[in-house]
Amino acid sequence: MQNRITELFNIEYPIVQGGMVWTSGWRLASAVSNAGGLGVIGAGSMYSEVLREHIQKCKKATDKPFGVNIPMLYPDIEKLIDIIIEEDVKIVFTSAGNPKTWTSFLKEKGITVVHVVSSLKFALKAQEAGVDAIVAEGFEAGGHNGRDETTTIVLIPTVKEQIHIPLIAAGGIATGKAMLAVMVLGADGVQVGSRFVASEEASNHLNFKKVVVNAKEGDTQLTLKELAPVRLVKNKFYHEVQKAYAEGTTTEELKTLLGRGRAKKGMFLGDLENGELEIGQVSSLIHDIKPAGQIIKEMILEFRKRKEELSSL
Questions:
Q1: pLDDT exceeds 90 at position 146
Q2: Quick one: pLDDT at residue 226?
Q3: Model-level pTM?
Q4: How far apart are CA 135 and CA 78, in angstroms?
Q5: Which residues contact 264 (CB under 8 A, 6 or more apart)?
Q6: What single string gives the DSSP state of each residue in 80-126?
Q7: 204 secondary structure, DSSP code
Q8: What angle do CA 151, 145, 186 make, to 5 degrees?
Q9: Which pLDDT tens digit goes with each residue over 99-117?
Q10: Which residues contact 168 (CB under 8 A, 6 or more apart)?
Q11: For the chain, which domains are there?
Q12: What mean pLDDT comes out for the span 197-207?
């Protein structure tokens, strides 16, 4: 199954695992890479030496390519960059910031750079900055998201129409059917996040995994746009945020309510009431926890089956 994404990353299938905070450690990244996709370590929830440990363990667990995701708003990003270069990581995904800041530097070090965007405007800026590929993430996605609320089905053809570099679709993709759909719309590959949250190798708490597989339609909502838009499960913390809005809260009061470590508390430590639970709308289609390799195998089988069925139309 060769195309621009498999060739860019030297992988078997054009499936990229999202580099999610408190979820995407070396176990998940190596499992995805071993199954033919591109595993990605999520550095956003790691101190620099923790990232080094995960990179080294990932190298021991797989001889296949893998990458690291770095949110550019990370306070000590220079330390993470140093670790990535010292450990000879070949693929970096950047997000939540200006791609011009680090793209040239990373590429000079021989690193393939991919930037995550939520709009055509930022896709063009990333292309201009010289990135090797773009992840265009629709409004359906979990975690931090775009303010414009552009859905994946609209975003992908919009971006495809005006860029010439490889395009990876993200947001609402957890099945082979969805993978086929976005590739028909112009994507060269897919980034899958929420489905891998409910994998055996994901480092997030089992309590959170159970919330994901029990989620129903409408159980998530994009909120906190004044700070950084994020899609959350509607738990006690979420309802506290909505109450604050109803009472005319200020941005500073929202920051105080959010505090520090909410995502860790919810996703990593399993506090389902007071923690921040970031997951996509597609969680309502996720019904079980299974190995990451099985997830990829099932996606590819369904992709091929549906493609064959559609070829007869």
A1: no
A2: 85
A3: 0.96
A4: 23
A5: 22, 45, 275
A6: HHHHHHHTT--EEEEESS-GGGTHHHHHHTT-EEEEEESSHHHHHHH
A7: S
A8: 40
A9: 999 999 999 999 999 999 9
A10: 5, 14, 16, 114, 133, 134, 135, 136, 187, 188, 189, 190, 191
A11: 4-204+286-311 (3.20.20.70), 206-282 (no CATH)
A12: 98
Q: At a CB cut-off of 8 Å and minimum separation 6, what does 52 contact?
A: 83, 86, 87
DSSP character for 44? G
Q: Give the pair of three-digit tokens for residue 131.
A: 């990135």
The structure tokens listed for 49 are 């030496």
Asked if 120 contacts 101 with a C-beta cutoff of 8 angstroms, the reply is: no
Nearest to 102 by CA among 90, 116, 92: 92
* Residue 209 CA, distance from chain mean position: 16
Asked if the model's pLDDT at residue 260 lies above 90, the reply is: no
| Contact indicator for 174, 146 with CB cutoff of 8 Å | no
CA 53, 228, 111 angle in degrees (round to 5)?
40
CA distances from 283 to 210, 265, 288 (A): 11, 20, 10
CA dist 194 and 279 (Å) reads: 6
Cβ contacts of residue 285 below 8 Å, gap of 6+? Answer: 174, 175
Q: Assess contact for 171 and 18: CB atoms under 8 A.
A: no
pLDDT in tens, 58-103: 999 999 999 999 998 888 899 999 999 999 999 999 998 899 999 9
Here the tokens at position 267 are: 């996703």
